[in-house]
Design brief:
The structure holds two protein chains of two kinds. Chain A folds into two domains: 134 residues, 3-Layer(aba) Sandwich (Rossmann fold), CATH 3.40.50.720; 183 residues, Dihydrodipicolinate Reductase, domain 2 (2-Layer Sandwich). Chain A is built from twelve helices and 14 strands. In chain A, helix 1 crosses helix 11 and helix 5 packs antiparallel against helix 12. Chain A is globular, with a radius of gyration of 20 Å. The termini of chain A are far apart. Chain B is an alpha/beta fold. Chain B folds into two domains: 117 residues, no CATH class; 126 residues, Dihydrodipicolinate Reductase, domain 2. Helix content of chain B is 29%, strand content 32%. Chain B has seven helices and 13 strands. In chain B, the strands form two sheets. In chain B, strands 7-8-9-6-10-11-12-13 form an eight-stranded mixed beta sheet, covered by helices on one side. In chain B, strands 2-1-3-4-5 form a five-stranded parallel beta sheet, sandwiched between helices. The longest helix of chain B has 16 residues. Classes of the chains: A alpha/beta, B alpha/beta. Chains A and B meet through strand 7, strand 8, strand 9, strand 10 and strand 11 of A and strand 6, strand 7, strand 8, strand 9 and strand 10 of B. The structure holds nicotinamide-adenine-dinucleotide. The site of nicotinamide-adenine-dinucleotide has 25 residues of chain A, from helix 1. Chain A: GO terms for molecular function: nucleotide binding; oxidoreductase activity.
């Protein structure tokens, strides 16, 4: 059975990430309806895939051909759109990260999925990347982990978007002046909830509780550093937007006798899975190469859920808990920036 | 040809350098021209001062560890005809000095991770990282805030790689027996990146230093010379002259650690 897909929001992520991914997945999905507040964007993107277009959310949710709703709008409207999709009784919702921007909103989503039974998957692609799946299994028997680090050095998105699609309607890249504590706090919130959030479910796996944010820093134009601690485990989030050719998106975990390094490809591109390596005294084990990345994985998951092949109620629960973790960390980092003291 | 004597604890490391500089160094049978002092053993500054007082033209301190200011003062005072060279594990690596001509164009995020075995001495590891920063960039952080951990330490602050543009600095002393010791440095600014991986001085395994911009990577030449041998060569060029530069550097680094 081919599942009909309706998009809410048809910006860079829909164009560069999801349409190429769905094309690769073949008959599993067919895009039937594309909604965007910009009618030109909606119409143009819809025409690429032979879908209907609209500027109204209701048109997509009422479309009997839509089985799965993909929420790819700006984060502030995610909650309302996920709620509306669940209430409309679709078979499944794929919501781009972040699921919501506040914990109260995430709890609303938890409630609506519980009430309607509609599965929701968050497009946190690293949690679906074969490199992470491999790493999670490999590290299952590890003793205490004492360091978890996510580093995201990435070029301007356009560089990667242009490698994946041809563009219509690209929004300007947000600029941050970092000359006041308030500005740094806002920047860190933004970075944690839009960038670091990709790795936070992985971080949470090894450091489920963060006791304090010890230190934060930010440098213009777009560099960040967050040092936090949960028990004896440090959590470090670092990175920058960087106009060199070379991205560096790495996730590192260290215990007394084992070391994990995962290298992820940049967002947007379709360059296969990340690469994971576990090193101990006896040597290094590398995961086997995989051609698909987390983008395919998240769509395969929503397909299984929408068809009832898999009924795993923990998807939403985990997504809400992941978001709680991210929001708490973002708030603690912002508080640290404002007061200079741990929150 | 300089005659060499060394603390017994570091004699094997010194022996391999002596074998690698056969026309310049030889083990002494009596009075030694140069003394190699084990900087990891307590009282190294006093032993170095004693060697200078005994007429050594040079003292080489292998892996210096933190020392009290009064001991450094005494050592300084004794160096009227003797040069002192500090043989750092990472900072003495020959590739580190190559970075001195590199220029950052703005601020960035600087991460230095020293992977060290479980139970390593955090003060010594941190001192090594700060010494590396000084040797590589000619600067030390004005303030470093230290956070001691069960298996290591984090130290945070800022380092201006160029005037007026401070980079955010994170120093990680990560203790694990999983990976061999190394110092791994990454810096990312708006338009440049720097990556360095420096290995301990026991072998001539070359550091890997890569400078990146929009056009591609520049990898600095691999130098197949151990940091120990590089330090000895420095000592030989200074020998007999009272060179206090390394001790001044040590004071700068120790000031940051306090
Ligand atoms: N998974 C990833 O790698 C990744 C990468 C970047 C962004 N994202 C996420 O994907 C989502 C979309 O990102 P983007 O960069 O395409 O976003 P964007 O902000 O550029 O906007 C996407 C589109 O949404 C439209 N829009 C605005 N308000 C809308 C509304 N109320 N309803 C429907 N559409 C509306 C805009 O006109 C635009 O075309 C965001 O939630 C973002 O956090 C994911």
């Amino acid at each position: 059975m081919t599942l009909g897909v309706g998009f809410l929001g048809a910006g860079p992520v829909t164009q560069a990430i999801h349409l190429p991914t769905l094309a690769r997945l073949g008959p599993l999905f067919r895009v039937v309806h594309v909604m965007d507040v910009d009618p030109a964007v909606a119409a143009e993107v819809a025409s690429r895939v032979g879908a209907r277009s609209t500027t109204r959310v209701g048109d997509v949710l009422e479309d009997p051909g839509v089985d799965v709703v993909a929420v790819c709008s700006p984060p502030r409207v995610h909650t309302a759109q996920v709620e509306a999709a669940c209430r409309a009784g679709v078979r499944g919702v794929l919501c781009e990260k972040p699921l919501a921007t506040t914990i109260a909103d995430a709890e609303r989503i938890e409630a609506v999925t519980a009430a309607t039974g509609v599965p929701v998957v968050v497009g946190a692609m690293h949690t679906f990347d074969p490199a992470w799946r491999w790493a999670r299994t490999e590290t299952m028997s590890w003793g205490d982990v004492h360091a978890v680090r996510s580093r995201i050095v990435n070029g301007p998105n356009a560089r990667f978007e242009d490698a994946a699609t041809e563009f219509l309607g690209r929004p300007p890249f947000p600029r941050f002046d970092l000359d006041t504590p308030e500005a740094v706090a806002a920047f860190l919130r933004h970075v944690i909830l839009t960038l670091a959030i990709h790795d936070l479910p992985l971080v949470r796996h090894f450091a489920p509780i963060v006791d304090e944010v010890i230190h934060v820093d930010a440098v213009e134009p777009f560099g960040w550093l967050v040092l936090a601690r949960g028990g004896d485990t440090t959590v470090e989030l670092t990175g920058s937007k960087n106009a060199t050719w070379k991205p560096d998106w790495t996730f590192e975990v260290v215990s007394a006798d084992a070391h994990l390094l995962v290298e992820f490809p940049p967002s947007y591109v379709h360059a296969g899975a990340g690469v994971a390596a576990v090193t101990t005294r006896t040597g290094t084990r590398l995961m086997p190469p995989e051609d698909h990345n987390g983008y395919e994985g998240e769509w395969r998951r929503i397909a299984e859920l929408a068809r009832g092949v898999r009924t795993d109620p923990r998807d939403v629960q985990a997504a809400v808990d992941d978001l709680r973790y991210a929001v708490d960390l973002a708030e603690a980092a912002a508080a640290r920036a404002l007061t200079g003291r741990a929150a | 040809m300089a005659s060499v004597s060394a603390d017994a604890s570091i004699a094997p490391a010194v022996a391999s350098v002596v074998a690698g500089l056969p026309l310049s160094l030889a083990w002494s049978t009596g009075h030694a021209d140069v003394y190699a002092i084990d900087g990891a053993a307590p009282g190294w500054a006093a032993r170095a001062a004693a060697a200078a007082a005994a007429g050594a033209r040079g003292v080489l301190v292998v892996h210096p560890t933190p020392v009290a200011a009064a001991e450094l003062d005494a050592l300084d005072a004794s160096l009227t005809h003797t040069c002192a060279v500090l043989d750092w594990a990472y900072a003495a690596d020959p590739a580190t000095a190559l970075l001195r001509t590199w220029r950052a164009t703005g601020p960035g995020v600087l991460e230095c991770t020293s992977y060290a075995p479980l139970g390593a001495d955090v003060d010594r590891e941190l001192l090594e990282v700060v010494a590396w920063l000084l040797r590589a960039f000619g600067r030390t952080p004005a303030v470093l805030t230290r956070h001691r951990l069960l298996h290591g330490e984090r130290a945070v602050g800022r380092l201006a790689l160029i005037d007026g543009a401070e980079s955010a600095l994170l120093i990680r002393i990560v203790m694990t027996d999983a990976v061999p010791p190394a110092l791994v440095v990454t810096w990312a600014g708006a338009t440049q990146r720097l990556n360095a991986r420096v290995f301990p001085p026991d072998t001539a395994r070359p550091a890997r230093v890569t400078l990146t911009d929009a056009k591609g990577d520049t990898t600095l030449p691999a130098v197949y010379e151990s940091a120990h041998r590089t330090s000895w060569k420095r000592l030989l060029t200074f020998s007999g002259r009272p060179a206090h530069g390394d001790l001044a550097d040590l004071r700068r680094c120790l000031a940051v650690l306090r």
